[in-house]
Amino acid sequence: MENRKIESGGMGPMEQAKSDRRRLPRWRGSGWLSGWIGDATKVSVVDISMSGVLIEHSNIFPPSTVCILTLSLCGARVSVKCRVVRSALYQYEDSSVGERHYVYRTGLALVDLSETSQQLIGEYIGFLEAIANGNSGG
């Protein structure tokens, strides 16, 4: 199976341009966090902040679409309202039987977070920060 990444101007998922208007830092999801958009679209979290999430999935979402993202954070299931900021093809894989599988990356802005959702996302980001700082909490 061949895997091809689509070039996107050279910026990696955690690098930020000087003109980036992001208010809060992003934390790489480390491949541990997955969830769903709606009832059926499985997604993997690439990075997360208190104001947004970058996800990977198998279909494109039109910009400005409002959706519900469901994640399992700190042992609790949380559903958050999101708005699609951008969605683009990230890579594709050609299988040995001639099928092509697409992977899209979509930036979601978190909208109207409840206090509980804010707390759970904050705890998860704290967990990622502890790992980044070499403290696994154990």
What is the strand and helix layout of this fold?
Blueprint lengths: L1 E4 L21 E2 L5 E4 L3 E8 L3 E6 L8 E8 L2 E19 L5 E12 L3 H18 L6
Instruction: State the helical fraction.
Output: 10-25%
Biggest sheet details: 6 strands, antiparallel, barrel
Mean pLDDT: 81
Find the count of extended strands (DSSP E, 2+ residues): 8
Our count of helices gives 1
Query: What low-confidence regions span 5 or more consecutive residues with pLDDT below 50?
Result: 7-22
Name the CATH superfamily assignment: predicted glycosyltransferase like domains
Gross morphology? globular
Strand content: over 45%
The structural domain count equals: 1
Order of helices and strands: EEEEEEEEH
Which fold name corresponds to the CATH topology? Thrombin, subunit H
What structural class should be given to the helix and strand makeup? mainly beta
In which order are the strands of the major sheet placed?
3-4-5-8-7-6
Rg calc:
16 Å
Give the C-level CATH assignment: Mainly Beta
CATH architecture: Beta Barrel
Q: Report the span from N to C terminus.
A: 39 Å
Would you kindly provide a written description of the structure presented here, covering whatever features stand out?
The chain is mainly beta and 138 residues long. It has a single domain (24-132), classed as predicted glycosyltransferase like domains (Thrombin, subunit H). 13% of the residues lie in helices and 46% in strands. It contains one helix and eight strands. The protein has one helix at 115-132; strands at residues 2-5, 27-28, 34-37, 41-48, 52-57, 66-73, 76-94, 100-111. A six-stranded antiparallel beta barrel has the order 3-4-5-8-7-6. It is globular.
